[in-house]
Design a protein that fits this description.
CATH architecture of the largest domain: Beta Barrel
Distance between the termini: 24 Å
CATH topology of the largest domain: OB fold (Dihydrolipoamide Acetyltransferase, E2P)
Number of helices: 2
Shape: globular
Oligomer: single chain
Largest sheet: 15 strands, mixed
CATH superfamily of the largest domain: Nucleic acid-binding proteins
Strand content: over 45%
Number of strands: 15
Radius of gyration: 18 Å
Number of domains: 2
Structural class: mainly beta
Order of helices and strands: EEEEHEEEEEEEEHEEE
Helix content: under 10%
């Protein structure tokens, strides 16, 4: 499972490209957050809807259902981005506010994190969780491998799950061990860091609000006492594109 809901403002001019087979692909950056945390997501939209919204002005609010995809370029550089399964242009809610960042971008700030950048993932831990120190206090990090089937092919996506010491889920994340099957939900953010070659890297990080342990075909015990907030769906509408329309070899990035 690898599904995410984001709602924020477009903070750059969307860029429209086409694959050699003529598939439209729109890339755009979306910014938002809550009072406690800001986030930025680079997203891609495929299909006819990409052409329809290509001229959408900066600072327009959008809501998307997405999944994290990880790819490797021709020179071996690995990167992650969000791909929208559906997208809507929306109006801000009465409880929303606008915050301007240091670069002058207007970020849509939601009162509830489930209406901002909320993710739900499931998979197996690739190693024991680790606890480290930060300026905010201790943080527990676990790496989850998500196995999915796309066009009959097994695809593995890696997402880090984290919790700080002031979060109820901290002990739950810190106690996770290699091989455990988990279901986690929380705020999806992107960690930016620089590799040994001086290149900027962007990796998905789920700040966990709740963790479930269990078997792949059946849930086990909840290991977080915090009440789970429901995932907030968007109103129904046809998907923006079909996975059958995609050919990884044609993607221009």
């Amino acid at each position: 499972m690898n599904t995410h809901f984001i709602r924020g403002n477009i903070i750059n001019q969307p860029e429209l490209k086409y694959t050699p087979k003529g598939l439209p692909i729109l890339t755009l950056n979306v910014g938002g957050g809550t009072e406690k945390r800001r986030w930025y997501h680079r997203t891609a939209v495929y299909g006819n809807i990409a052409e329809i919204i290509a001229d959408t002005p900066i600072n327009t609010a959008v809501a998307m259902h997405c999944n994290v995809q990880q790819r490797e370029s021709a020179n071996g550089f690995k990167y992650s981005n969000l791909v929208a399964n559906e997208i809507r242009l929306v109006e801000p809610l009465p409880t929303d506010t606008i915050s301007t960042d240091a670069n002058g971008n207007e970020l849509l700030i939601a009162a509830d994190p489930t209406l901002s950048s909320w993710g739900l993932i499931s998979g197996n831990l690739t190693r024991d969780a680790r606890v480290g120190d930060t300026s905010r206090g201790q943080v527990a990090n676990a790496h989850v491998a998500i196995n999915e089937f796309v066009k009959g092919e097994s695809i593995t996506t890696y997402i880090q799950v984290s919790a700080f010491s002031d979060q109820p889920s901290f002990e739950s994340v810190a106690s996770l061990t290699k091989g455990a099957y988990v279901i986690a939900q929380g705020m999806l953010v992107i960690n930016r860091w620089t590799d040994n070659d001086g290149r900027n890297r962007y990796d998905p990080n789920l700040l966990a609000e709740s963790i479930l342990l269990g078997m792949k075909n059946g849930l086990g015990a909840t290991v977080s006492r915090e009440k789970v907030k429901p995932h907030t769906p968007m109103p129904g509408r046809p998907p923006a594109f079909s996975n059958d329309d995609l050919d990884d070899a044609d993607l221009p990035f």
